[in-house]
Amino acid sequence: MEEFANQIRDYYEDPLAALAKQFMFRRPPTVGELRRPAQVLLLGNHSSGKSTFVNHLLGDNVQNTGVAPTDDGFTIITHGATATERDGPAVVSNPDLPYEGLRYFGDQLVSHVRLKLRPAELLQRVTLIDSPGMIDEAKAENGRGFDFPGVVRWFAERADLVMVFFDPDKPGTTGETLQVFRESLAGIDHKMLIILNKVDQFQSLHDFARAYGALCWNLGKVIPRKDLPMIYNTFIPLPDKPKSRLPMEDFEKARNDLIGELRRAPTRRMDNQITQIQAYAERLRLHAMVINKAADKFKSIRARWRGFLLLLFGGLGAAAVGTGMVVALPGIGLAAVLAFSLIEYIILRRTKRRLISRFDQIFEHLHDQELLVRDRADDLRMMWEEISPRAREIAEKSGLQSFEKMSWHKREHLDELTNELIPQLRSKLHDAMRDSDAPAPALEQDRPATFPASEPRRPLVEGDRSAKPKRRTFF
């Protein structure tokens, strides 16, 4: 895996970092962000069992638990030789930690961030991020004092696995939960696991079926897919808790399967990094090519105007000298200054605004061939809609004249990276994973207690389920 990690870092360094700086695109991930352990983000309604799951994983009471909301901040739990804690300002200001980006959400968010170090074996390979329980009302900024959906999106984009917990009392019905699915988790369903927790509270299959169906109904409103993701149905065993009348064996296997997915997060991480660099490179390519085309056009128009004025007033000056009308030279010089000022401060500024307003047309022209392919057209337009506001803002503030022209070599290198090198790297990774694994077909007793969301009314606890083959961890 180190070979793939080094290759990804090399691609970021050349050509992506240089082009990002040249066209003022967002910076690529730092070395610290690329080298960090795998991250698992835990989301869910309050009292859905996130913190209890963390304590079960680590075999220690790391997080406070309770029926009422017990935590209103984000807790980053990672490995340390001794059990210590650090507050938010110390976390976001540490250059060795990959959380500097959180400071842009404001001091209120930073004060709600904590780092906990624990000497647990699992934390050597996986960092857990526990989040505040989601609440019923989705007011402006959720009454938290910071952009909660934005912060969730920030963590989710960087996580290698996102676990979303629901409980029987609130199966996906809170306003904040629905808002997070719409605004924060869109486009990352490939690394999201949905868990219906606390199934040991059910005393009958009827109660289980009602909660499961309600969860599927609510998820169907916020996940734009024909088939919803699989839902893990499980529980965390606690002492002195009343036992359910339902058979628990399959739900226990589902819990073990869920923990197995979490332990495979380091393997997911390399694949996620390739996905991340592919997305970064494609967006940088769109951003740079549109700005480069507009800047090239602007500089061409400016050069023509300057050439015209130079010829005009140079000719007038030469004529004045040739005819002995030297006294006219100051007037010609003043007229030249006024004309150059008119061109620079009025005509060229209007030209710049017109070119920036035509970014969409420039994008369509540059990618006219690719846009003929339907699937590719949808992806390109989605990416352009995502980055175009920022591209316009940068062009307006910096001026099109400030961008150095992209060389043919850089453009060819960028095209090769997005179209050939990164897809080849992903193919090599999958080959390496396949060669390293020789999993036997999953036995029936190893299958997880999960249910297809498209069939919410089937309250079965066994059968009709498929399991992912177990794979060895590569780190």
Automatic annotation (TrEMBL):
Signal peptide: none annotated. The chain crosses the membrane at residues 303-321, 327-348. SUPFAM superfamilies: P-loop containing nucleoside triphosphate hydrolases (SSF52540). Residues 40-199 form the Dynamin N-terminal domain. InterPro entries: Dynamin_N, P-loop_NTPase, TRAFAC_Dynamin-like_GTPase. Residues 455-467 have a biased composition (Basic and acidic residues). It holds the Pfam family Dynamin_N. It comes from the Bacteria. Keywords: Membrane, Transmembrane, Transmembrane helix. The keyword Membrane applies. Residues 431-475 are annotated as: Disordered. This is Putative GTPase. It comes from Thiorhodovibrio frisius.
